[in-house]
## 1
Amino acid sequence: MADNKKLPSFTLSIMPLIVLIAVIIIFSKVENIILIALALTICLCAVVFNGYLDNHTGVLNDGATGAVGSAFGAASAVAFGAVLTTAPSFESVKNFLLRMPGPALVSLGVIAALLSPVMGATGAISTVITQLGETYVSMGIPAEVVHRVAVIAGGALTFVPQSGAVITFNAVSDLNFKHGFIHACILSNVGFIISLIAVILAAQLLY
């Protein structure tokens, strides 16, 4: 049976996302602008989509539950990464990857990408920044470039079942891992890899 529920237009639906990105870019010098932009966008959504919601309490409960779950998921990934870095073999693997031939940003991207399936994007980014950030900065690479490459590379191989991105994708699309794998891989991982290549090339030209 067709769902006749009134839905917002495409333009209205993407407006909060556009506002979020615009506020972060325009006021990038403001301290904690990401938190401010998120709060502003949430308030905007509450006003714009008020007429499309049948159960406001249910939406708030779902949002709170999802936020807590995401926070604990990210925290566990970071904790796992911290434990992993204490293993004797981690130092050997790190030194091997640091000696990779080619630009230093390539080895940085490879390290973050290889860690992401094991500990998730959040854990990989946290581990790379805390354990290797100063090493790459000492090579003359600007800190902001190290951060951007690590963040993008951290999502390059997160197509494993325990990945938060895959779990969210399957939940939203109503697919299981078997049927949603190829779609998640193309939409998420391929996009990250293309972006990573573009950022590394741009950094080589601009810095």
## 2
Amino acid sequence: MNNRKLGLFAIVALMLCVSASTFAVTPEFAALHRDKVLPTHDIVLKKTLFVCGQINGLYHGINDMVGALQLAKNNNITAEMLSAQLLAVKIGLIEKPALLRHIAKEIKFCEAYPDFPLGFDDSPEGPEKISIEFYKMADHIENLPINYKLKELPALRKEAQRVVFELFWTDSEKMRTLSSDMLNFLRRVLKEDIPFDIFGKLNH
């Protein structure tokens, strides 16, 4: 009986301790996470370098996949080989929209900083924010049709050329240009000595 009482007392004491610590910590924790973090020089510098690194990896990853589609120019290529490569590209792109949206979210935070660069001036309304450009790229890649089930080699070659254009000459080039603009912002506006260029332009 005494053992049962001791056990019950221990459980009640533990619950009280947990409850007390919960109520003691939670308000401070919640308040901390409600505080709005402002885009200061140091934070914008770190975030911009971080996203440029992510863009660099994404850029080269997509280009490596697209580069394999150059097999379409090879006279020894078969329909089965090119179809398999198109399927590989389709599978390889599955996770890319999520990464692009993550990059866009990080960039959006930085866009509140004065003189942060804008996107492409290709509409009558003027340039959009860079974060919007990346959200658009995510949507484009997510909805990009890749018809790897074609049976005839000429049709597969044409499809491979289209995919190369859609990915390399459209999305990848946009990534490279916008990342370069953000690095120039670090140099010009934040006065940071960035002793490198992230992208080396590849020819496909």
